[in-house]
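Q: Joint fold for the lines below.
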Amino acid sequence: MTSATGTPAYRRLSVEERRAQLLEAALSLFAHRAPEEVSLDDVAEAAGVSRPLVYRYFPGGKQQLYEAALRSAADVLEQCFAEPAEGPLTTRLARALDRYLAFVDQHDMGFAALLQGGSVVETSRTTAIVDGVRRAAAEHILSHLAVTAPGARLRMTVRMWITAVEAASLIWLDEGKQPPLDDLRDGLVDQFMAVLTATAGRDPQTADVVRHALALETPDGPVGRLARRVLPVVSDAAHLL
Amino acid sequence: MTSATGTPAYRRLSVEERRAQLLEAALSLFAHRAPEEVSLDDVAEAAGVSRPLVYRYFPGGKQQLYEAALRSAADVLEQCFAEPAEGPLTTRLARALDRYLAFVDQHDMGFAALLQGGSVVETSRTTAIVDGVRRAAAEHILSHLAVTAPGARLRMTVRMWITAVEAASLIWLDEGKQPPLDDLRDGLVDQFMAVLTATAGRDPQTADVVRHALALETPDGPVGRLARRVLPVVSDAAHLL
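A: Joint structure:
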């Protein structure tokens, strides 16, 4: 709990700076240990401050600190899918996924613990925060699809894909961060276009979205490459048409 | 807690029959109320037996009863995806989904509470039971793809789809069980073929699976209909080829 020379232990920080510093220390601990194995002592030590100081900022103890750290992580995650409405849809999605997957990479076990549940610090409040991130991601994506009132099929497709991305992130962490992030991202973009196209077969609104999205794609973009790779696989199935 | 005339309250049941009766009563209560709002009194009343009798079977109280009910539900769910390896893949998948979605329909809030987490009765053990169901479903599906050693891409695709099916089930419950179950099932089958085909573009093993699956499909089957509905949507995108 004593701070080594050079750490910013007792440097004057504003209340907001100090709070941010403690949350950052907590998040980095949650990234490598289960939430229930992180004590306030650990957070104090990692931040180079005294335990009473941690308690002054988080009088509710570990549960309050965990929820505040989660809230701060959620704010970052919710911004991952904020992206200018310019260029092909797949380019925007790839940039959003790069930010999201970088977050997963950085927060590691903390991300997994949060989504997998069953933790002693999980409550209906923490579940609500995680659901909020999912909702925000869905809203961002739907806004890029440029429909004013997305119908049930389109919304369900987007929300299913977001859950599938979470599953892929957990599998990726579980498999020692394989495949490389670029491969994972490209595969997730492919899957998005695939599920959107399947839904387009049942839903006129989604069909409009797909037509509009395809018009902006280029032959050397993700959809062009996907189409050229998939065509040889399905070309033997002419008996279905 | 007294049983009405005609209920099988004090009829002689074997230990296994009594246990099954209590679990059934518990599951039907969990279907309509949050697990934390179901007491052992409620279970005793629903089963038409005394509270001491419930405690005799579940001395660990509510937590033990909840875990046993969950274990029993998990056994049913794990069998949903067991299906003879005959006929087109989409027919097998549709039958499995019919069983799975009937379970979701029947267990309703209990299913939602379980998957959404944040419940006071959720523990690492209950999380492990739910994960076991997901793993069993993935194994069943992979066995239908007739590959001896499924690679990472194929496994990830199947597991992502299973998570997406869970998400769709929760959304379906949340939206007052709309659309009709047949529509939901058909959409999920479409999505499975779509994501499998997208992965086939990146993975030779999955490409073999898709070729094999398509060879068994008929023009009036799910894939034939999907292909004919999707072609007009993507036909303007010849510039990508």
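Q: Anything notable?
A: Residues 1-6 of chain A have pLDDT under 50 and may be disordered. The two ends of chain A are 71 Å apart (CA to CA).
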